[in-house]
Amino acid sequence: MEDTATPDFSDIQGLVVRGYGPLPAAAFLLLSIRNRSKARRWLRELTSEVTFADTRPTDHATNLALSHHGLVRLGVHESILAGFSNEFRSGMTTPHKRRILGDEGEQAPEHWQWGGPESPPVDVLVLCYSASESALAEQVSRLVSDLPDHGLEVVHQLATVTLPEFREHFGFRDSIGQPYIAEFDRQARSRGNAVPLGEFLLGYPNGYGLLTPRPLLEPGQDHQDLLPADPEGSGAKDLGFNGTYLVFRQLAQDVPGFWRTQRELAAHPGSLIRDPVHLAAKMVGRWPSGVPLVLAPDRDQPGVTDLDDFRYHDPDADGIRCPLGAHIRRTHPRDSLEPEPGSDKSVAFSNRHRLLRRGRAYGTPFVPGLAPEEMLARLDEPDEAGDRGLHFICLNANIGRQFEFVQHTWSDNPNFNGLREETDPIIGHRTMFGQSQDSFRVQHDPLRCKYHPLPEFVRTRGGGYFFLPGRRALQFLFSG
Hints:
This protein is of the alpha+beta class. It has 15 helices and 15 strands. The strands form five sheets. Strands 7, 8, 9, 10 and 15 form a five-stranded antiparallel beta sheet that branches. A four-stranded antiparallel beta sheet has the order 2-3-1-4. A two-stranded antiparallel sheet has the order 5-6. α8 (255-267) packs across α9. The chain is globular and about 70 Å long.
């Protein structure tokens, strides 16, 4: 039986443990398999370059994931494929998934740049990170230069950009509120509210104290004895152990539209909030500096250092400080929902739906410094920079209970937390199940204020589900 008390970092791909912050240049290669045997040999060689969590790269890093279609193209037996989750096997573009993820109308997969039914299938995802743009160009060039000779072709190559002060394109600080995983804390700081490792890595107990289902093989299917044994002692070989599922969504951001809407709504005679930046902060749930409204409800206080140490119920059960439908309150409700709001049970419920985010921005900023005031001042100027947004990447052991639940049941739920006719003001879809949900309410005493209509600010341009295997699983998959 595999020892799961201390993870073997040499068997875990590095992206699970760190987001490669010291490597600001990044590109994502979406590949299609054209020749099975040639592609398997190339991927087997690439495995030697994959970065695992036992090293801290300072010059470059490479990680590797595969779609269900990619596993089929590699010739993985159907009995093995059946062990992967239903969400991974069915993908992101079925009629059911379109409805629950809001990918309909102009955002339907037929309009995507990649990952949809009108574009070539994505079989392999190679994630490249480097210390500089020049080093990244060399890294990518070396990988793609002779791909056709190795039975693969590039479907799409996605560039990224590093934005100042950890901000995203709307001008708000991002990368706050990552789940704390005690097993990844090399300094043993003993922070509270640790999320179980099994929420993000297969083969470890999750928030229910159970091991999330994963692909298990009969011992005879692992001819070279490459895979670890099932931690539960069944005698099977565990293909999923130390692996996880990677969700990728290319999300385009309408920055001028976002700030134009804030300006127009704040100027409306019935607006409770007259400052567009303050209104935008109400929608996000944080000020542009990242300070949460729960801690600073009336004005930004950049001096606040701990941006994630707060709860909702005791200081703000009614949403007077941070609106009940604000983006960060929907995507991570903390202690605000049933059962027993304000209790550790409520926190534990929220923690069963956490996501480990590893995304990168792309595209030219609307203004160089991303200052909201400057963006507001330049709204009437032409925007010639083109497409911009976020390559949203998250890791989770259970796609349905984590990513899809957060998107459907929290972000796009018009009845979230007792609300009506409104979805997430930042990433939410404005039409759900054929009905318009384009409002946003700011709670206030004695009367709340309704902002309407609210257009969509974020649109999906591509996406897919991938399996990010451990080292031994990579060896097995490419062994042939």
